[in-house]
Amino acid sequence: MTERNLPTREEVDSYFKNRSNWGRWGKDDEVGAINLITPQKRIAAAGLVRSGRSVSLSRYFPKTPSPENPTPAQHWMRTVPRGEKGGLSADYYGIYYHGVGSADLDALGLV
Questions:
Q1: CB 97, CB 91: distance < 8 Å
Q2: Residues of the chain with pLDDT > 90: what percent?
Q3: Domain locations in the chain?
Q4: Closest CA to 111 of 103, 72, 69
């Protein structure tokens, strides 16, 4: 069996500093890691296309209770400002997975 070495608390804490993209593209940047998608990357990605078919991963997300959907999905957004350090916005999704109005959404193959 292979021995697993877990990182120390200090190593994990260093991830937030050493792997942060804050300021990487300048103080006025608004797109963050999307800057990594350069024209050259787009050209390379286009070269991988084998057909022109597109597939939507969009799914209906029923949020209104009804007789057919007594436990609907929940969704709300939250913003947490943190002064000069930025802040965050987050989505909350609550789903009763084995109800009438929804199906398993825990793997791309089930979409």
A1: no
A2: 32
A3: 8-45, 60-111
A4: 103
List the one residue out of 85, 93, 90 whose CA is nearest residue 63. 93
Q: Which residue has the tokens 């608004």?
A: 30
SS3 call for 74 = strand
d(CA 18, CA 97): 37
Distance (Å, whole) CA 43 – CA 33: 18
In 3D space, the residue among 71, 92, 98 whose CA is nearest the CA of residue 80 turns out to be 92
Render pLDDT for 3-47 as a digit per residue (tens, 0 to 9): 889 999 999 999 988 888 888 999 999 898 899 999 999 999 999
Average pLDDT, the chain: 84
- Section 85-91 average pLDDT: 86
Q: What angle do CA 8, 32, 57 make, to 5 degrees?
A: 95
Element (H, E) at 90: strand 87-94
Residues linked to residue 79 through DSSP beta bridges, in sequence order: 89
CA–CA distance, 86 with 21 (Å, rounded to integer): 12
Instruction: Output phi, psi for 92, to 5 deg.
Output: -115, 130
